[in-house]
Amino acid sequence: MFRLRDDEKAEVVANCDHLQKLKFSPQLPYVFTEHGAIMAASILNSPEAVAMSVFVVRAFVQMRERLTANAEILKRLAEIDTTLLEHDQALRTIWQNLQPLLEPPPDPPKRKIGFDYKGDGK
């Protein structure tokens, strides 16, 4: 069992609607770890306590599985992000190389009309 910090208390209140009264409490709440919840349930020897301990253990297992899945998803997203950044740079280079080719060619110089008196033939 341990006591939450102020920022952890605010996060719990924001995520759990049924704990809105805790928001205005000046006290920081105590919470159980997975092992602490099992130990507390083993002391209480009633059918309700046994059912609740099974519920708590399943909740902790489910939470651990979700955290593991989230970690794997975040790792995969980081890999995809790195790949996209590499592709982004390659596409930027290709675009910069294609830009001059996409511009229309300059107009050819116009021929002068009339007599060329300098004799250079142009």
Structure description:
- This protein is mainly α and 122 residues long.
- Among the domains are: 1-31, no CATH class; 34-81.
- The protein is built from three helices and two strands.
- It has a two-stranded antiparallel sheet with strand order 1-2.
- Helix 2 packs antiparallel against helix 3.
- The longest helix has 56 residues, at 47-102.
- It is rod-shaped and about 120 Å long.
- The model has no long low-confidence stretch (mean pLDDT 82).
Structure keywords:
62% helix; two-stranded antiparallel sheet; 3 helices; mainly alpha; 122 residues; single chain
Sum this structure up briefly.
By secondary structure, the chain is mainly alpha-helical. Helix content is 62%, strand content 3%.
How is this fold's topology laid out?
Layout: E1 2-3, H1 6-15, E2 30-31, H2 34-43, H3 47-102
Antiparallel strand pairs: 1-2
Helix pairs in contact: 2-3
Biased composition (Basic and acidic residues): 108-122
Region (Disordered): 101-122
Protein name: KilA-N DNA-binding domain-containing protein
Structural class: mainly alpha
Helix content: 55-70%
Percent strand equals under 5%
Q: Ranges with pLDDT <50 over ≥5 residues?
A: none
Number of helices, counting only DSSP H or I runs of 4 residues or more: 3
Principal-axis shape equals: rod-shaped
**How much is the average pLDDT?**
82
Strand order in the largest sheet? 1-2
Gap from first CA to last CA: 98 Å
Largest sheet, strands/sense/barrel: 2 strands, antiparallel
Spatial extent as radius of gyration: 36 Å
**Could you spell the SSE succession in H and E letters?**
EHEHH
Number of strands: 2
